[in-house]
Amino acid sequence: MNRPHTHSLDQHDLDMHSPSTHPSGTNPTDIVITVAAPGGVDQLRVTPRDPQAPGAGEVRLRHQAIGVNFVDTYHRRGLYPLPGNVPGVEGVGVIEALGAGVTGLTVGQRVAYAGTAGGYASTRLLPADRALPLPDAVSSRDAAASLLRGLTTQMLLAATHAVGPHTVLLVSAAAGGLGIMVTRWARQLGARVIGTASTAEKAALARHHGADAVIIGRDADVAAEVASLTGGRGVDYAIDGVGGDALPRFIAATRSGGTVASIGRAGGPVAVEAAEGLARDRGVTFTRPSILARLADIGIYHAAATEVMAQLARGLTADIGGSYPLAEAAQAHAALEAGRTTGALLLLP
């Protein structure tokens, strides 16, 4: 895996103005990554593809950076339905062509998007109403690493459970791309954050980004450690993106009247009925919010994106843990699923 990128003004200028195309608008190295069949990383295929002509209401985007998210691995494995056969729900690029009827956008404009599959490609067609103009203050790589995580964070900390100065929050995988953003945003709101991490190195990174305390180890007794940290009270709100055996521990660590949000299954399937029963016994609200379902509402998408873009412009961006060439998407998936990464991963066309 490549080391994290440091963004200079020169790199930002490059992000904004250089789509790396030939004068004709095409590139002989254009590729798309497809899923041949549900399964492992060996099912990802690298195929040449010429740029497509946008239809009515569409734009063609040449990617500068593509976000890698756990949902991409769920799509590849067939755990979630994938519209089409190209994974990737987040990216940033430059508009190359406009379809009929598109207004308010221009060729050469830098835009971001989230929540729409088809991103693992040098170029893609995108519904024009999903294209979000990118502020000059936000680099393309930061936006590609942060937009979906920012939208997820906004959902979790505002729509799912209102977090404020009196909230004690438990966050799984606090050194991951989403965990870091949730921690930073929650601390900005005045919350106390307890994170979990698999190693001491990841725990140090989580503390660096604002976690007040970190519980270390995949087999840690989370409820007991939370009880020790909260005087036996438990947390007000727990966000679990791991699933599997971790989810019951998060429910057990939450006080009566609190909330547990289950948002992923990186550590294994979520036993929903068992989780609901445990939550009910403890007087805990159990919820499974879906960011992709939320973003299907175009009004919510734009309202939430406005708030997130403002946060990104103020510097609240995801930590970029590494990047891979687009053609090495399989290696990126393997590293993410093996837990070898911290922060967010990018694919670079």
TrEMBL record:
Feature: compositional bias, Polar residues: 18-29
Residue ranges with Basic and acidic residues bias: 7-16
CDD domains: QOR2
Pfam name, any one: ADH_zinc_N
Ranges where the Enoyl reductase (ER) domain occurs: 39-347
Region of interest: Disordered: 1-31
Gene Ontology CC entries for this record: cytosol
Superkingdom in the source lineage: Bacteria
Keyword Oxidoreductase included in the entry's annotation: yes
Gene Ontology MF term list: mRNA 3'-UTR AU-rich region binding; NADPH binding; quinone reductase (NADPH) activity
The keyword Acetylation appears for this protein: no
Alphabetical keyword list: NADP, Oxidoreductase
Descriptive protein name: NADPH2:quinone reductase
